[in-house]
Specification:
Layout: H1 2-24, H2 30-34, H3 41-70, H4 82-96, H5 111-120, E1 150-154, H6 164-177, E2 182-188, H7 199-219, E3 227-231, H8 245-251, E4 253-262
Parallel strand pairs: 2-3
Antiparallel strand pairs: 1-4, 2-4
Length: about 280
């Protein structure tokens, strides 16, 4: 009986060894072959968990961004509607994923988001950085209805020549303007003092300044058919009643303003309207 027990024990031991050898190293062994079929299941589950955690933190960031712009999560204290809260959350989440709403886009699916952004921007603020300068964001000399790119260029007394700093600002602005389809208005201004209150001279100097800026924009890649050159003389003063030289120089300027008017189709292009 003991011999039978010993034999069956040896038998089981040999079978165990056979299974271990065949499963781990044999050609038919499942364990060795499965290691080459792809990533193990635990690694896929771990990657999914990491992505979920990242998404969770991005949503937390979006909620915090929304709180800083509306006075509370979901706009607490501002009597926002459910739609407004959802739009602000969507705007914040997109910003958190580094995919902000493009204010220059004409995508109708994002029209409500663009409208909400315009409604919540504080006066003087903008979502797009302006060219380098001493102003906070957009280089607008006064409160404006435009929320797109603007640039301010100052000129010396009686001159329409662009300085190196002015050219750098224009080139930087042109980089943001390329590829959009809105009319760009270039406005030239002059001060009453530098033109001795001569309206004709003031208008001509203002035009020369706006034209000089327009030429620099074209050199930087903005086509002429997108530009509107305007001479404002001293009729639109940044300083209404200047009392010193600094006030007068703030009126000696040129402005680049992106309007809300789309560029018209070329009537001479084959396939255009009227062909």
């Amino acid at each position: 009986m003991s011999n039978s027990h010993d034999h069956s024990g040896d038998d089981g031991h040999e079978k165990g060894q056979g299974k271990g050898h065949g499963g781990g190293h044999g050609h038919g062994g499942g364990g060795h072959e499965e290691g080459h079929e792809g990533a193990p299941e635990w690694l896929i589950s771990f990657a999914d968990m990491v992505m979920l955690i990242m998404g969770f933190f991005v949503i937390l960031l979006a909620l915090n961004m929304q709180k800083s712009t509306t006075g509370g999560v979901g706009g607490e204290g501002k009597n926002l509607t459910d739609d407004e809260r959802l739009m602000e959350l969507a705007i914040a989440i997109r910003a958190g994923f580094n995919n902000p709403v493009d204010m220059n886009s004409d995508d109708p699916a994002e029209a409500a988001l663009r409208k909400r952004i315009r409604e919540t921007i504080m006066p003087g603020d903008t979502l797009q950085p302006g060219p380098d300068g001493n102003m906070r964001d957009a280089q607008a000399p006064r409160t404006t209805d435009y929320v797109n790119i603007t640039c301010l260029v100052l000129f010396p007394d009686g001159e329409s020549t662009l300085s190196a700093d002015a050219i750098a600002s224009i080139i930087q602005t042109a980089g943001q303007l390329r590829g959009t389809q809105w009319i760009i208005e270039v406005r030239g201004h002059a001060s009453a003092v530098e033109t001795a209150r001569d309206k004709v001279r003031s208008m001509k100097l203002a035009f020369d300044r706006s034209f000089a800026i327009g030429q620099e924009l074209v050199r930087a890649g903005v086509p002429w058919d997108r530009l509107r050159i305007a001479a404002c003389a001293d009729n639109e003063r940044a300083a209404p009643a200047p009392r010193d030289a600094a006030g007068n120089r703030s009126n000696q300027r040129g402005e680049i303003v992106v309007t809300t008017e789309p560029v018209a189709a070329d009537p001479y292009t084959v396939g255009s309207a009227g062909e």
